[in-house]
């Protein structure tokens, strides 16, 4: 009897150690998988919003996304963008046709992991951000650092970064997660509007001032509802 009790004790101890190692390495819990599997078997794929949220949660954890603090989710930003487009006449600004793709700070876009010292930091030195004014990558010969563009369906983008494949009329638009890229953007050819040409520099203070513009706070309130 004592031998059997001792065996059960060691089995439980081993199971606990294995579970602890698993959660530390993957940043996932068994409940995450239980919820995901239950949703699959219940056919919740028909309930897009519920399953999308679960898949986003799992993807963010499994990729160990550790971006700079994000206040708003992309879906809410896009709702505010739609209001902006209805309110402001952007045709008054010079336009350029571009091919715009979405990217993240993660390895799949930048080749950097969260442990990399440059993870989430743009060429300009500011942290990636998805907000009323988001950080984007561009060809600096076409759009200098600090240039403010309005991208229909995305919102205001501030040129803060570069990329090896971002040449000429190509843009990379920042999103917090891979799911956001797939669900809200992908790759699009469209006209963007040059609201303000940059001077070749961009600081965190500059970006914060743009996002604190009092005239735009009514749109920010839409993001937090």
Distance between the termini: 60 Å
How would you write the strand order of the largest sheet? 1-5-2-4-3-6
Structural class: alpha/beta
CATH architecture of the largest domain: Beta Barrel
- Seen as an oligomer or otherwise, the chain set is single chain
Provide the CATH superfamily of the largest domain. Answer: RlpA-like domain
How many domains make up the coordinates?
2
**Share of β-strand residues:** 15-25%
Total of DSSP H or I helical runs spanning 4+ residues:
8
Can you tell me the residue ranges where pLDDT is under 50 for at least 5 consecutive residues? 18-71
Specify the overall morphology. Answer: globular
Organism: Halobacillus faecis
Protein name: 3D domain-containing protein
Keywords: Signal
GO cellular component, one term: outer membrane
Entry keywords:
8 helices; alpha/beta; 6-stranded mixed β-barrel
Describe the structure.
- InterPro entries: 3D_dom (IPR010611), Resuscitation_pf_RpfB (IPR051933), RlpA-like_sf (IPR036908).
- GO terms for molecular function: hydrolase activity, hydrolyzing O-glycosyl compounds.
- This protein has helices at residues 2-26, 30-42, 48-62, 74-87, 107-110, 178-184, 204-211, 217-223, and strands at residues 95-103, 133-138, 148-151, 155-161, 170-174, 187-196.
- 41% of the residues lie in helices and 18% in strands.
- The protein is of the alpha/beta class and 225 residues long.
- It has 8 helices and 6 strands, in the order ααααβαββββαβαα.
- The protein is globular, with a radius of gyration of 22 Å.
- Helix 2 (30-42) runs antiparallel to helix 3 (48-62) and helix 4 (74-87) runs antiparallel to helix 8 (217-223).
- It has 2 domains: 2-62, no CATH class; 74-223, Beta Barrel (Barwin-like endoglucanases).
- It has a 6-stranded mixed barrel with strand order 1-5-2-4-3-6.
- Mean pLDDT is 76; it is low at 18-71.
